[in-house]
Design a protein that fits this description.
The protein is an all-beta fold. It has one domain: Beta Barrel (OB fold (Dihydrolipoamide Acetyltransferase, E2P)). It contains no helices and 6 strands. A 5-stranded mixed β-barrel has the order 1-3-4-6-5. The two termini are about 30 Å apart. About 20% of the residues have low confidence.
């Protein structure tokens, strides 16, 4: 059985790259994911590790606090003793994929992803042109679901 966990979230602090004593490179970043709604909303903090050659690239320069990311990988849960003696739980993810999503939430400070250019596609011959702008759900009345 496969253990794949995918989510979107916000980087909580800048990513760090280090090497293990055996020489393996690892990129570590903590990502926040909000679950629930209203008064029942809570934030899950997930420690994400990206290993090997993928951790050695330039990704560290973009994984800054506030950056939105999509992460996918194998999720594990571990218990540890906090400094005050209590037992706590940590969610750890060995990532297969870390993709930048959108922009950072800090109003333009630091490095950001380049803005994508979108091209407007001309309608097919015989199709009705919509003067009201982008397509809406009403434009798809014949969709069977």
């Amino acid at each position: 059985m496969s253990n794949v966990f995918s989510f979107t979230g916000t980087v909580g602090r800048d990513a760090e790259v280090r090497s293990t004593p055996s020489g393996q490179t690892v990129l570590n970043v903590t990502v926040a994911n909000n679950v629930g709604f209203g008064d029942r909303q809570q934030t899950l903090w997930i420690r994400v590790a990206l290993w090997g050659k993928r951790a050695e690239g330039q990704l560290q320069n973009y994984l800054k606090k506030g950056q939105q990311v999509f992460v996918s990988g194998e999720l594990t849960q571990r218990e540890y003793q906090a400094n005050d003696g209590t037992t706590r739980t940590s969610l750890d993810l060995n990532a297969n994929v870390i993709d930048l999503v959108g922009r950072r939430n800090d109003q333009g400070q630091g490095q950001q992803m380049p803005q994508q250019n979108y091209q407007q596609v001309a309608p097919e011959p015989g199709a009705q042109a919509s003067s009201s702008g982008p397509a809406t759900l009403d434009d798809f009345d014949d969709v069977p679901f």
